[in-house]
Write a structure and sequence with these properties.
Length: 155
């Protein structure tokens, strides 16, 4: 199975903008690509990556979750969602994603297990303080909003 992003010119242009650091333009082009190809795992992973670079972790998480709806064992999305949850301060959720990654992706198993050990050690060192996950996201994202209106080109 080939993801439509591999040969799509809009996706390739978005990737170039991302590489050059023009993240807002990359987001726009990735979103417009997804209007054309709403089942592209690479497209949602790319949006997740760019939103993470912008520290918009709520949006990043939503995009990684879209990938996992399409393919629950997508290692890029599992890793990205784990890193996103970790950046948000949701240690338990990050550990859960890393465990899934270790179980489903042999090539990422050592990396994921190392991340789990690190987070578990951090939890233990915080025993005197608050160990539970944060109750509100750090990025202020409205988790009830949609990614974008399907079928609507963004400008």
């Amino acid at each position: 199975w080939a993801d439509p992003a591999q040969d799509n010119i809009r996706f390739q242009i978005a990737k170039k903008f991302e590489e050059k650091g023009d993240l807002d333009r990359a987001l726009l082009d990735y979103q417009n690509f997804l209007v054309e190809e709403p089942k592209s795992q690479m497209g949602y992973n790319a949006l997740g990556r760019v939103y993470s670079k912008k520290k918009a972790y709520g949006q990043a998480a939503l995009n990684y979750q879209e990938v996992l709806k399409l393919n629950p064992s997508n290692s890029t999305a599992l890793k990205g969602l784990g890193k996103t949850r970790e950046a948000q301060g949701f240690k338990e959720k990050a550990i859960a994603q890393y465990r899934l990654l270790a179980d489903t992706s042999p090539e990422d198993k050592n990396w994921a297990e190392s991340k789990i050990k690190t987070l578990m050690a951090l939890k233990k060192s915080n025993q005197g303080g608050k160990v539970s996950d944060l109750t509100s996201p750090q990025d202020g994202f409205d988790y009830t909003s949609s990614l974008f209106k399907k079928g609507q080109r963004l400008t």
